[in-house]
Amino acid sequence: MQTTDSIAADIDAAEASAAWCEEILNTAEDRVHAAAQIARRLGAQVENGHVNFGFWTPELQDWRVSDSDVFLEILRPRDQIDLTLSQSDVRFDRVLLPVARSEAFTFAAATGVHIGSRELIGDFYSLVWRDSEGTLHRILDPLAASLPYGAFAPAEIYDVEGMLAQRADKDYWAGLRSEAPHKFGPPTSILQVHVPTATPGGTLASLTRQFERIASRVGKGLSLEPDDELFVGYDAVQLLPVEPTTVYEAGPAFWTETSSLDDEVTVHLMRPDTTNWGYDIVISGMATVNPVLLENARPDELVDLAAVLHNFPGRPKKLIFDVVFGHSDNQGLEALNSHYFAGPNMYGQNLDYKNPYVRAILLEMQRRKVNFGADGVRVDGAQDFKWWDFTAQELRHDDAYLQEMSDIVQHVAGTDYKPWFVFEDGRPWPQEDWELSSDYRAVILNQQEGDPDVFQWGPLTFAHNTPFIYTFWLSKYWRIKEILRYGANWISGTANHDTLRRGTQVNPKLNINTRLGDTKMEILDKAYDNPAVSVLTYAVFPGVPMDFLNATARASWGFIRNQDDKYGVKVVSEEAISLKWQVDEYSYSVPGAFRWLKELGFETRDDLARFLEFLPALVEVTDYDLNTIAALLNAVEPPLAGPRPVTVGTLKQIARAWMDDMHEYCNVSHSVSKLDPAQTSGMLALREFRHENQWLRGNFRDEDSFRYLEPIEGRTVFAAHRHGPDGREVFALCHMEGGPTDEIEPLSLLPEGVSHDGWHLAIRTPGIGEEYGGGQITLKDSMALVFQRG
What is the value of pTM for the model shown? Predict the structure, then answer.
């Protein structure tokens, strides 16, 4: 049995922190500069076995809580605790320690506490305050370093510096060290990864093992299998957000107290098991890792992944984090005090960027997170960083905050550096004409003078791109011309987490390009893993190409989160159309697939499809009245499959089952046996071609050309000719859609005056025989050729 006898308050240290804070508040240039300094001291920070705690607590001022009613709470499990158990009941001994306060900040210090590490589980902590009836209320630490039970539970004291000191990629960072902070530039290409669906294990540790295995094979010169080839040839890996997300809206909670005394708390613990695409964040906990992604509940797993990427043989791979600071889900209101928020928006809550303490804490969260070892940062929804101008009575974009994000100097393994930055910014989105009026260059133009390598997502990378609709490529030709002119600082490619999701929501009765496949599944798969599109992206377009693993694996994808209670049925009704695109009768019938829906009575795909024909229509006509929807579904003749009778409760069960089953169905591992070696090896060769011709990243120059073949004659074929700075030239023909061409001699389509001599075939897409080395050819939909000379 563990005792708490060793735990003691260091009130002198706490008072010294409060005095320091008061001095900063009194002497700093302004509140912005004061907040930036104080934020560095917040959270739980370990120093020689001693732990200092700092909290921003304006709510204690709002509620007039006296110092004597505020405590640091330390919770120590009475017996050994296993964080990986699905459920357990644990008794914690509770120790309340005194604090010291300075204005809106509360400090504490403790000795004798258990400090978490890879091998050891630390004590848990929070701040608590006592009301007039003697009831204790918790204030959680938004800057926590370890959250085994999520953002709505006490945090674990964790030795962050010890974790970082053990990292296995120190040589990588040492090689970048210089007097001035190292500045990362863009990679050549990016693989975008959703951790829970990237490997059978669905964790960061599982993904790390995947890269370790591939690295071992590459280092030994061994052959790669098709599923291995999906992960190589890229110079960077971008993870969808790995921060803690929302929890089950209607419970159960992962930390539930079943009894509470002054010196003892009994808690029912659940290992976090939500499914989420990563963007439903609550802001609190952004400095650490979502426990759902951790195999052993240790944040070290993220450092391990960084290390295996940085140590990859031949070419180190950069690690890019995707951070979401443009909004909070409404659940964030339960994790943070009200001062963080500026009012509701379509996602949940706006953040109060003009509050200097909120601003500083958000930036400090970002700094601590990137210090796990990221080389780059992708900022989600940068157009959503706004503040209300009371004078002008309008919302303004907070470009100054975006600049501050880019200016943070990180420190990893003794090396100071500034990451490479990418912003997703579609302003004036959500203005109705945003697809027409957005230039995708707002952040680039604002920051390029100080950083010529700042990037944005380009127009074909943003949402609502549907490359399987006939005339898509001609309709986007004006955007393509913008890419040729401005694309050097854009992310390119049409397959990412957002575009693939939008594709599954398209009405299949539209003018679909049936030449892409015989079934809707084949059409969707090929549209987002299209050889001709890949050639256009990697051998023609400027910028940095990015692929989404689920697209290149031809796995499914969608809006997958199982936490919703109030709107879960509505979300499923909106996603229902994806059944037509992504699930056929055979896929549904596979043993183990869609097990939750089958248990509810949807034994066949037809059973489910019929139910999902009714549901969206009823959601629409009843204005999402669940009681009326249930009554109308019960009246359908012949009766629908599924639980009988249909109630509001069973509707929510069905919604949860859909989300859980689709999350499992989207796992890339299910697609391994269906991969085409010609496609995976061909796309790997294309990535290597881009790496060998990195000059292609630059914008088109005056001597370069891009056109579509005329007359159209029922097909869209792009022809592009590019000149490299060292005399190299690339000529590409890409059949994007439509019927086959007549027999053509590709080099005869070179711009007038360009010699036909000296060219060799560098790339031919799958479907073009290996015996073809040049000369007459008939190009069909999705075929492409790349010639090179010099």
Answer: 0.98
